[in-house]
Every structure is written in C-alpha cells, then in structure tokens.
# Entry
Amino acid sequence: MILFTAPETWPFGSSLALMVCLSVIEGAGLMLAASPSSLLDNLLPEIPDGAEGALGWLHVGKVPVLVLLILFLGGFTVAGYVLQGASQTLAGTLLPAWLAAIPALLAGVSTVSGVGGLLAKIIPQDETRAISEQSLIGRSGVVIQGIARDGMAAQAKVRDAHGHMHYVMVEPDLSEQTFPEGISVLLVRKVGARYKCIRNPHPELL
# Structure
C-alpha cells in the first residue's frame, strides 16, 4: 500500500484515476447510446495532409482518440508501478517521480502502438467510416443539445439506413436560420467534421 501512496508514484496514481474516470464515462455513454469517443472524434479536426504517416503508428484516425488515450494511461500506469516496485525491491528505495515517468511514458506510447494496432483490425477503417458518414446526408435527425447557429454547431442524433444511431454536430446551411433543441433537421452536406442542415420539411417521417 505504501507504494501506491508514496509521493514518488503520484504521476501513476493520477494516471490511474484519470483512466478510470474516462473508462466510466465511455461505459456510461455506451449504455446511453451516446459514445463520448465518437463525439470527441467528430469534434476533432481532420488529419492534415502529410501527417497520416507520422500518426499512423499510433493508429490515430483508425481507433477512437479517447480509446487511444485510455490505452496510453493504462500502459503508463502499469509500467510506472512495476518500475517503482522493482526499484523498491532491488534498491530499497523508490526512484524520483520524474525519472520513473520517462520509461513509463515510452511504455504508454508502446501500448498505444501495440494494442491500438490490434483494435484497428477490429474497428472499421477510415474509408468505411467515411462512407458511413456520407450516407447520413439526406437523413433526418433531431437537435438534442445546444442551439445550432451559423458558426456554432449543436449536437443532433441521426439514425442511419441500418437503424444505428449517430451523434453528430450540425450547423444551419442558411446563415439566417437557427435550430433549438427538439427541432427536426435534414442533413444536406458535410463540411469538415460538421454537417450542414435545413429544417426537416417532413418531420413526421423522422
């Protein structure tokens, strides 16, 4: 127990707490059919041209960013405690927190690369995801959080042709329009990570 409460292990304790919090949030979101990892990915900008190779070994764009962060925190935490435990056993003392954090950071990145690669083989790739996102154009949905204004997106839920629910960020296609919560909208095009929408002319068909 001393190992987990020692000042020299505070980075790993903080990492463990953050990892648990993110896991609970993601799990709760999945139970409510509103995955925070999907929402976060929709809010992030597109990967700039030329950056795919640099980020490819971390599987950014292939695995949800929130999942990659949880993997990093898990690898960092486990490596840190194992290293400090070995130091205490072999040398009778703990390493300074900053010194132990250096190899733990490398372990966290390695975890993202290794385990993320396995997840990337399971999760649909960018092309499949892009096709799915484009297929939402022409679908109707409902604004569920915020007020959609020109330059200010709100969150809407949209059901695809297979009955799966998607949570996307929407803005009015016409600058003079605003869409408060509960309004039915029709997605007409995709700009970056956001969808442009108009008022649904047939809300009864939602």
Remarks:
- DSSP finds seven helices and five strands in the chain.
